[in-house]
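Supplementary Note 3. Input sequence used for the single-chain structure prediction.
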Amino acid sequence: MASNGRQRVLLVEDEVLLRETIAANLEDEGFDVFQAGDGEEALHLIREHADGIDWLMTDIRLPGALDGWHVAFEFRFLHPLRPVIYVTGHAPPLPPMVAGSLFLRKPYTMAQVTSALRQLSTS
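The predicted structure, written as discrete structure tokens, is reproduced below.
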């Protein structure tokens, strides 16, 4: 948790407008947000801020070599108990999601996102 008492979320989304909108809404809900547009950038942030990320919210389909499944796996390797939210507008997830995670289908609402974050914080 940040020194200001706010939870920190890493938001991984390749659609810039969607990412910026979700980040702004999460900040309005009281979260600090790190943003990444692809898996490589997300892994860099995960490693750079090793203990500074409380949550991961990742799109499954990302440009480049690393998808959201891989990002979540790497995040959980460093932080085995921290929550993960997967999102996609495509087919349902096929690989197993990490334990303590939730899945949201696009389009989703901010109420669904904040509800998922709060649900994961109590589980």
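The radius of gyration is 13 Å. The helical segments are 16-28, 39-48, 68-78, 110-122.
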